[in-house]
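Researcher: Here's the sequence for the chain we discussed earlier.
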Amino acid sequence: MKTFDVPLTHWEMTQAVYLGLMRMSASESQGLDHANATRRPFRIRMEDEFLGACGELALAKLTRRYLTPTVNTFHGPVRDLGAWEIRATKHRNGRLIIRPEEDPDRPYLLIVGEPPHLTVVGWTWGRDGMLREYLDNPPRKDGGTADRPSYFVPQHVLTELKPGDPT
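Model: Thanks. This is the structure I predict for it:
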């Protein structure tokens, strides 16, 4: 499968930091912690928000689209970029995460790497990624128990991003 390396500039990274802070501030003011059933430490939440914003910027750059950043739109009708739900992980061999309550009719795309060096790996429809064989509940980054089983789709089953894919 062909992947796409997308280096971010200093200014794109700055935009990602700002977007991550906006999302954190909005979530904190509403008592939200969208990614886990249990609370994550601030530092880990900020890293997650920053990496997610970097992933959105990387896909926008690759597809030459303008990113209109959103805040607190998870699980709603608004998507990350166009039709895409973007998932980013710093782990080069990381898996694409789809939560059980998420829309099976949306396309989910995996981006891996440590900013500024990101790679667009591939994508799957939610329904194709929500298979029992992908259900997992790995430990949290801070060593705690996630206690939130989700679908972790391996990279080798993802579809290569091509022109004409969901936009």
